[in-house]
Design goal:
Elements (H helix, E strand, L loop, with lengths): L5 E3 L16 E4 L4 E7 L3 E6 L6 E6 L2 E6 L2 E6 L5 E3 L11
């Protein structure tokens, strides 16, 4: 048995409720996002696995990189160095 979802390779493209059947999946191969049509009385398209906006954690060479909406915020390299971008707020004892 083969399961084939609808797919697009266009950046930012999201399917409409008219393009998917209830429960059908669609994948955007450019953005790496998966979508599902659901209904709780009102049909809508939801991103499967979506979190707080576009937050991505990934491995770049030997560094662990955290990105928010495409902007690198933090990098932990293989030597244990933590590099932060932007303002840092700390609470508690920093000694």
């Amino acid at each position: 048995m083969t399961i084939k979802q609808k797919r697009s390779s266009v950046a930012g493209k999201v399917p409409t409720t008219g393009q998917l059947e209830l429960g059908e999946l669609a994948v955007n191969t450019f953005d790496g996002k998966l979508f599902l049509k659901k209904s709780d009385g009102t049909e809508e398209i939801v991103e499967v696995g979506a979190r707080w906006g576009d937050f991505i954690l990934g491995l770049v060479n030997t560094a662990l990189v955290f990105r928010w909406n495409g902007t690198e915020l933090m990098r932990l390299d293989s030597s244990g160095n933590l590099i932060l971008s932007g303002n840092v707020t700390a609470f508690g004892d920093l000694s």
